[in-house]
Amino acid sequence: QHIIPRLGMVPLREFTVPLVEKYISDLLTTGRLDGSGGLSAKTATDILVIIKSIVKYAEVLDAKFRCNLKGITIRADDREMRVLTRTEQDKLTAFLMQNADRTKVGVLLCLYTGIRVGELCALRWEHISLAEKTIFICGTAQRVQDFSDSNRKTHVTITSPKSKSSIRKIPLPDFLVEQLRPFMSGADTYLLTGTARVFEPRTIQNRFKKYLQLLELPDCGFHTLRHTFATRCVELGFEIKSLSEILGHADIEITLNRYVHSSMDLKRVNMDKVAALLCIISTS
Question: If we measure between CA atoms, which residue out of 168, 170, 185 comes closest to residue 135?
Fold first, then answer.
């Protein structure tokens, strides 16, 4: 939808760094297919990764052109990801634990383990051990184009996680084990459906939005649950290396820079520590 219409018919001799730079710039300003503006930095980066892979493959085929795209990068959006306040988190938690169903338990699991929505939808009971109090993340559900002879344009499929570090085992606190127990079913069934049918990631995202509306909480994306989990862990003094592995990050820098947002309360506590130190110095 994005690459082929603009670059698909460009001869190799004309495929240059300035051409790709101009294309990426256009994506960020007018790249949306509905004509409503530019694509996000994340989407444009995903497209750039594919283009770089195409160029690398052309080099393997010994194509006669030179186009070094290593220097082309896209600056991430500076928007700060929303994190639930303690009050908002408590209110949402109480709602999810009251008259719980599979969807509510799934949202609760994301809020207190930081797993992604695709990972939640791909979670089967063979990956959950209530005895060991763990879940094993080894797949992700996503909607992809359907190239079969069916009339469907897309379908939901289970694929490998986004990276090797995303394959991980996460320990569960006791309260989550007890919330999961009533919904336990066959090993080959999915947590969210109790059957062999995969749950649509978009559906649980929409249900999460409805929960926020019912609770009269500010609107936010499903990924807010993951950011909230990471932020709460840091506030509680969680060891960063362990947190990084639970989130499935390749290194702790990703955890610190992308997912952890210090709250004003935590900043105030730390500043009070500085004030306390000054008091000690002044009285000594």
Answer: 170
pTM: 0.72
- Which has the closest alpha carbon to 126: 197, 199, 190? 190
DSSP 136: E
d(CA 87, CA 64): 61
Q: Tally the C-alpha atoms within 13 A of residue 100's C-alpha that lie toward its C-beta.
A: 20
Average pLDDT (124-145) is 91
Q: Which amino acid is at 16?
A: T
pLDDT tens-digit series, residues 188-237? 999 999 999 998 899 999 999 999 999 999 999 999 999 999 989 988 88
Q: What is the pLDDT of residues 241-270, one digit of tens each?
A: 999 999 998 888 878 777 666 666 667 777
Residue 243: count of CB within 10 angstroms of its CB = 20
**Collapsed DSSP state (helix, strand, coil) of residue 213:** helix
Burial class (CB in 10 A: 0-12, 13-18, 19+), 136: middle
**Higher pLDDT, residue 32 or 123:** 123
